[in-house]
Amino acid sequence: MTAPTWILQASGLNKQYGPGCPRCQQFTGPAHNNSQCPICNTVHACVDAGFTLHQGEVLGIVGESGSGKSTLLQMVNLATPADSGHIWYREPRTPDAEPVDLLQMDAYRSRHFRNDRLGIVYQRPELGLNMRFTVGGNVAEKLLLANWRHVGNIRARIRELMEQTELPPERIDDAPHTFSGGMLQRVQIAKALSSSPSLLLLDEVTSGLDLSVQARVLDLIRRIQWEQQMTMLLVSHDLGVIKQLARRTIVMKNGHIVESGLTDQILEDPQHPYTQLLVSSAL
Amino acid sequence: MIAPLLQVNNLHKSFVLHLIDGRTIDPIQNVSFSVDSNQHFLVWGRSGIGKTSILKCIYRSYLASSGEIWFNSDQFGMIDMVQADDSMVLKLRHREIGYCSQFLKVLPRVAALDVITEPLVRQGMPEPDAHDIGREWLSQLGIAQRLWHASPVTFSGGEQQRINLGRAFIASPRLLLLDEPTASLDAGSKQIVVDMIQRAQQRGTAVLTVSHDLDTLAKLADGQLAL
Lengths: 283, 227
Hints:
Number of domains of chain A: 1
Largest sheet of chain B: 5 strands, parallel
Number of strands of chain B: 9
Shape of chain A: globular
Distance between the termini of chain A: 45 Å
Strand order of the largest sheet of chain B: 6-7-8-3-9
Oligomer: heterodimer
Radius of gyration of chain A: 19 Å
Low-confidence stretches of chain A: none
Largest interface: A-B, 19 and 16 residues
Largest sheet of chain A: 6 strands, mixed
CATH architecture of chain A: 3-Layer(aba) Sandwich
């Protein structure tokens, strides 16, 4: 029997903001086009979400603003605590080891896991970077958390990462505010890759960039994915971005996963009314 | 008895158009046929009758509504493409099933040489080796050398279609699905397609073609289905 190839298996993930009431289910969800219960005002950001992520694949999560896609990503990033559910992780370096439930880890192990095995790139650079640090300082921060100590080694690693992400290494000591939007996304990518994570999380990474810059950032991500066989979870509201990078896609609406499948099938033969609307709305 | 490479049983596909009153369209109803290894099978009929939908159901770009599509995989045995999970479909696409759409769709900044060799590189072939093979293919396809490092989006319709076909044939899948491969081609280019199909068969590839160009393709077919 061949070993399973998944590295992440999430099931029953829930996140709500508010106390909830017996009538929440009756008034929220895709059928009601609403995530917020009109009785108790609880927002159901993510309801019973689950997916499997295989080693080396890019899984896209698409949906409109407020659909719960970033909440789902942040639960995987262990930054937003899930109310319930499981996120099983299988370490690709030791595939025979038992999977661990990331949501059952204590705070210390959870922090260590985040620093060491996860990398994240946000839409807004100020969420991923400390704008008061230099570019090198930002990348060094993650390396220090991953127990790098030798200054020379740290700077050499940062220069290597800057070259890899097509940033001029001589600007290692420059402040982030002197970089363009596209370059700041590259700095975030360099920082995310610094600890050689097994999973890269991308949250609307090209939104807000102009088209040519967007194309270069997407090309960079595609190259990194191919060269390093990097596993990625990609959140975007842009079907064009999803189409370029993801082989499989999840569609979310009002906190629920309404459809999942191969990306070309989602685009060419969407089943759910919302997915049909989404595809028909593409420019 | 050896099982056919592809066995389609009672295939049915309907589209529910939720944005247009939830109306249903049924382009394929109860279609059955089989394709053996090395065979060239032709599905023909007028435009809009559901030929492309059959190919897309086999490739799983469309979800079949009912029926069975059994593929005899070298690696995984008999797989029903209607029921197979997405990961299995991706594995089969990676190694055993190729698809050539009617029109080439590529990023406008990827060179023709990279476009045509992409399937080989994806299968793990080192890029320089893949490029050597790609250059041979581009020559055989009659693509001028000065165009090899340009994006095919700037090419003529015929040149684009030849690149499209070359990319489908280059990795020698066990089953190749061709959607109107001779549409928009002149007589010389059609002959190139005929040669490619024949060479693919010699290499052990079964070819399933949908087309309305019977003049060019019917004489090559080992089996036919009229819709």
